[in-house]
Design brief:
The chain has a seven-stranded parallel β-sheet, sandwiched between helices. Helices cover 47% and strands 15% of the residues. By secondary structure, it is α/β, with parallel strands linked by helices. The two termini are 28 Å apart. The radius of gyration is 18 Å and the shape is globular. Bound molecules: NADP nicotinamide-adenine-dinucleotide phosphate. NADP nicotinamide-adenine-dinucleotide phosphate binds next to helix 1 and helix 6.
Length: 262
């Protein structure tokens, strides 16, 4: 589906970024993988290469405008263009979750809102500036259930996810006329990821549930009574990045397996 498409992934050393990288590589994309720490990105790039794919790793802080732009310039130098830009950056949940809103300090509340919106805006805007010349491209990000439903003890994370979904719509309204699609993924919790374990821990005491009980509780809210795997999520991301999804823009795909109505 993605033969020779040039894709840049931010946060590629993470669970979602890494899984999406592997799925895009399987579909033939040439990958430029980035993260603010190089080592985990190298691991994913090596994995992709050993499976016969093409991937280069680089250290890029997705909150640093100059670093993102410099890296995109190097991608254009090497590959001639950028077709797909995916922001899968995640801020450590231990720093933002678990405190009731009544007790939450302003900095802790603001951190996810500022960082998630800023990083997505920067990576999307800088990629779009390159894509406009070819009138072709796909910009993508990842959000989560609190964008659309009230969940206790998630602080500024819900508003941050809602902001990213609003930005997806706005970017699409301005960029789709120029051939650039902007789409988002809103997955259900994937228990094999560190993120979900970290998100559970601060709430465990308050809810009195064990890790196993919590997974069962989350799964019980889905229609299929189970949680999604990283691979299932990444397969949808590969489809959305491909021309097979050419009719899809300005939307965030609800991957919550029925636990949230749009
Ligand atoms: N996991 C799930 O089940 C799930 C479900 C729905 C939505 N989400 C959301 O999807 C996003 C990604 O989740 P994930 O599970 O893949 O998280 P993750 O495994 O923690 O991956 C996020 C990656 O982003 C990197 N990163 C952090 N700050 C960065 C920066 N400034 N520049 C570049 N890279 C940076 C992290 O590096 P370090 O680890 O070195 O900081 C990490 O490699 C998060 O917003 C998460 O809330 C996750």
């Amino acid at each position: 589906m993605l033969k020779d498409e040039v894709a840049v992934i931010y946060g590629a050393g993470g669970a979602i970024g890494g899984a999406v990288a592997r799925a895009l590589a399987r579909e033939g994309a040439k990958l430029f993988l980035t993260g603010h720490i190089r080592a985990p990105v190298e691991v994913v790039a090596k994995d992709v290469a050993s499976a016969g794919g093409s991937a280069e790793a680089a250290e890029v802080d997705a909150l640093d405008e100059q670093a993102v732009d410099k890296h995109l310039l190097s991608v254009i130098d090497k590959a001639g263009r950028v077709d797909i830009s995916i922001n899968a950056v995640g801020i450590s949940n231990t720093k933002i979750l678990g405190v009731p809103l009544l007790d939450l300090d302003l900095e802790q509340f603001s951190r996810p809102i500022t960082n998630y919106a800023r990083s997505y805006f920067l990576t999307a805007r800088l990629a779009a500036r390159r894509m406009v010349a070819k009138r072709y491209g796909v910009i993508m990000t990842v959000t989560a259930l609190p964008s659309r439903t009230g969940i206790p003890l998630v602080g500024g994370y819900g508003p941050a996810m809602a902001a990213k979904e609003a930005l997806t719509r706005e970017l699409s309204a301005e960029l789709a006329p120029q051939g650039i699609r902007v789409v988002g993924l809103r997955p259900q919790a994937m228990p094999e990821t560190r993120t979900i374990k970290e998100a559970f821990e601060p709430r465990a005491k308050a809810s009195g549930m064990t890790w196993e009980e919590w997974q069962e509780f989350l799964a019980s809210r889905t229609h299929s009574r189970r949680l999604m795997t990283l691979e299932e999520m990444a397969n949808v991301a590969a489809f959305m990045a491909s021309d097979k999804a050419s009719g899809m823009t300005g939307t965030t795909v609800n991957l919550t397996m029925g636990s949230l109505d749009d």
